């Protein structure tokens, strides 16, 4: 049944699969690898799966454009959870391969910026060609189409390869953020350590247009954690913006910011409010004065009294 099925960016042995298996419910679900992010999400849209786990942001490369674009278009989907996974690569090769034998390498496009310096130092003449995923790169090495692949060391056994070099990363403490996406439903109750994701389309292009969007958040004390522009496909200069903000849609400051955006933007797509991975309420920054729910409620009550002549 689709309710027991989760899809993910495959094939087997991807970092996405490793992230998915950190979720407690993964032990009781059928985990189905898909060939691409759109395929994983379309399975949810078509009710062939209850949810999909896909990468959305990397601490080195930034947003994963395939995921951002897919969530901004098509039938709406909702983010219900995020997973952070530390990322380090191994150079996977067929048994018996030496470093001097490696003339061609492959991996996911997001992997290349994370190993670029290592490649320049150790394999300066190797030819890079991107694969659909790091695990798919390992499969291509298994088939003899490339000499080596950058992937998680855990993928080696799946594809009959061996790690020639382990613990490869240009940036210390690199992480990738993954999101569990399902069909739209009411968000879970606020935890006090939440994140809200939206996609915002600009109206007419004019000086200060982006500033006007940002002010809807700043004037209400809502901190932004990510903002990334993406082309809409409607021509050069036409962009939408993927935004992650601290807080939950049920928080007055966040809800009012979203209402403000809806008033001035031609389109706003709510992607979800969900708990921040690895963050507790003790880690959340203190709210600026005047931005708590209590402050918004007191202001609304004052307005009501003023309108009734009860000042």
Structure notes:
This protein has 311 residues and is an alpha/beta fold. Helix content is 26%, strand content 30%. The chain contains eight helices and 15 strands. Strands 1, 2, 3, 4, 5 and 11 form a six-stranded mixed beta sheet that branches. Strands 8-7-9-6-10 form a five-stranded mixed beta sheet. It has a four-stranded antiparallel beta sheet with strand order 13-14-12-15, sandwiched between helices. A hairpin with a 7-residue loop joins strand 13 and strand 14. The longest helix has 15 residues. The radius of gyration is 22 Å and the shape is elongated.
SSE topology sketch:
Elements: E1 5-9, H1 15-20, E2 30-34, H2 37-45, E3 51-58, E4 62-63, H3 65-72, E5 78-86, E6 89-93, E7 104-107, H4 112-122, E8 127-130, H5 134-142, E9 148-151, E10 162-168, E11 175-182, E12 194-201, H6 209-218, E13 224-231, E14 239-246, H7 252-264, E15 267-275, H8 293-307
Parallel strand pairs: 1-2, 1-3, 7-8, 7-9
Antiparallel strand pairs: 3-4, 3-11, 5-11, 6-9, 6-10, 12-14, 12-15, 13-14
